[in-house]
Amino acid sequence: MTLRQRLSFARWLLPIAVVLAELQSAGAAWAAQRQKQVLVLYSTRRDSQIVIVGERELPRILDSGLGEGLDYYSEYIDRARFPDILYQAGFRDFLRLKYARHWFDLVIAMDDIALEFVGANRNELFLGTPVVFFASSPVTRHIPNSTGAIAHLNLSGTLALALQLQPDTQRVFVVSSADNIYESLARVQFQSFEPRLTITYLTGLATKELEARLATLPKHSIIYYMSVGRDGEGEFFHPLEYLDRLAAVANAPIYCWVDSAMDHGIVGGSLKDQKAETEAVGKLGLRVLRGERADEIPTLSPDLNVNQVDWRQLRRWGISEARVPAGTLVRFREPSAWDRYKVYIVGAAALLLAQTVLIAGLLVQGARRRQAEEQVHASQAQLRTSYERIRDLGARLLDAQETERARIARELHDDVSQQMALLTIDLELLGNGDQFQPEKLAAEALNRAHDIARSVHDLSRRLHPAKLRLIGLISALQSLQRELSHSETAITFTHDGVPSALPPDLTLCLFRVVQEALQNALKYSRAREVSVHLTGGPKALTLTIADDGVGFDVEAAWGKGLGLVSMGERLEAVGGTFEIHSKPGAGTRLEVRVPAHVVLSSETASA
């Protein structure tokens, strides 16, 4: 080619190169701005629980972390039909035709069957597309540009939990399809339990035969449900619907390994948490969609098993909730009456308590009011009694005063007045100069004057012993003893430790008490002997007056005479007390007690 031809070709090629560069730049910008394309392949039918959970959680996790949005697709592999080569080829052709014009940014393979399918058809269907997977078994085939979460299936955890809930278990019946991929794993994991348990595998049985076997299991048996998608007669079933059918006829508790079986008649188990599984895969997928290479993200090994039990099934099979291990999730617990109505119960209890407190307060108030009324009535009765007593005492004091005046008048009239009259006559005779016996008249007049003086002195002394203040209590009582003693009644007086000086009011009080007591004894007791004993001590001054007379009824006689009343009034005035012990035919004993502090304070005042 000549130089001119080369230059002409270059001039022709340059615009094409510029256009291609612009198209490449625009394509790169469009690729950066377009929505992310994601395909999810499930290893189960579209009505399985993992699909329900995945279709709810995966779009939410991926879309919430992407600014440009998400274009989301999902497809489902029928686990029961997957072993058929024709089914696999048909499913591959279906995907090739359906997504011939799609370029996916990410393929997610959920579980072992989907991962196996992607690995076998990667170059034909998803060449160069990053893969995020979830696997329950070790990944034996390396898939380029992939990462994922590998959670080994733990089937033995459910059996361990079942033995904790039912320690008397002797036999385990394992139910699964003939093509169930988990049965071989179960046989390996259950070997450690076989010395203790008899394990029977009911695999690939016809549905009616299986139902008959489960309805007549021996005692101390449990059922371990793996999964049944096709029975021994080749009929296809939804695994959870099949579980509902078995739970209706089984005569033993059923356990499982995945949480989708909850609320389908199982007691529980160490169940794989499918939501946690989906979240683990979704977070890895989001990292890839944000630009990280899948090969550079290490695979995860999450523990997805959670101990769970159905509270209703515990009640159904009589399994004690006390055997449920700590940390186990108890689901479907029916709320108790307290849980349902605790607000109303607390409100009613508070209202009842308030009413009780109010009623109690009213009762207490009523009782206090009645008590106060009774006290008022009692006080009024006491006041009336005291008023009547005072009125009666006043009347008797007036009578006594009149009696005493009459007695004094009689003594003055019968004794002093007559002697004064005779003395007057004698003095008149002497004044008239009686010549017969003037010396005799003078002597008689003198004697009459002495008698009158003596009578007036005795009367004055009985009214008020003036010399009591001068001679003291002991001497005054000794004088009173000599004065009142006579041949029919002997009066003795003894004393011991009595202070030499007592206050006038206490001295007069004790003297009047002894005087009144002796006069009563002489008048009414007909006693042959009366003893008076006065004793001083560290605690009290004690006066005892006793006689051997006829005695009397103290209660019947109380208040009828002024003697006892006056004694009580006198002693009360000085802080003393007295007691009378007597009964008919047994004599009388009067005990008077004056506290020492009264005596001491009186002595101090006297000093």
The helical percent reads 40-55%
Topology, number of strands: 17
Low-confidence stretches: 1-32
As a percent range, the share of strand residues is: 15-25%
The shape is: rod-shaped
Structural class: alpha/beta
The number of helices is 18
Strands of the widest sheet, in order across it, are 2-1-3-4-5
Largest sheet: 5 strands, parallel
- Radius of gyration, in Å, reads 64 Å
Distance between the termini: 163 Å
Average pLDDT metric: 83
Keywords:
18 helices; alpha/beta; 17 strands; 607 residues; 53% helix; single chain
Secondary structure blueprint with pairings:
Blueprint (H helix, E strand, L loop, with lengths): L2 H31 L2 E7 L6 H16 L5 E7 L8 H14 L7 E5 L1 H14 L5 E5 L10 E5 L5 H10 L5 E6 L6 H7 L8 E6 L3 H9 L5 E7 L11 H11 L4 E2 L12 E5 L1 H16 L15 E6 H6 L12 E3 L5 H95 L6 H26 L4 H4 L1 H12 L5 E7 L7 H22 L3 E8 L3 E8 L6 H4 L4 H12 L3 E6 L5 E8 H11 L1
Parallel strand pairs: 1-2, 1-3, 3-4, 4-5, 6-7, 6-8, 8-9, 11-12, 13-14
Antiparallel strand pairs: 10-11, 14-15, 15-17, 16-17
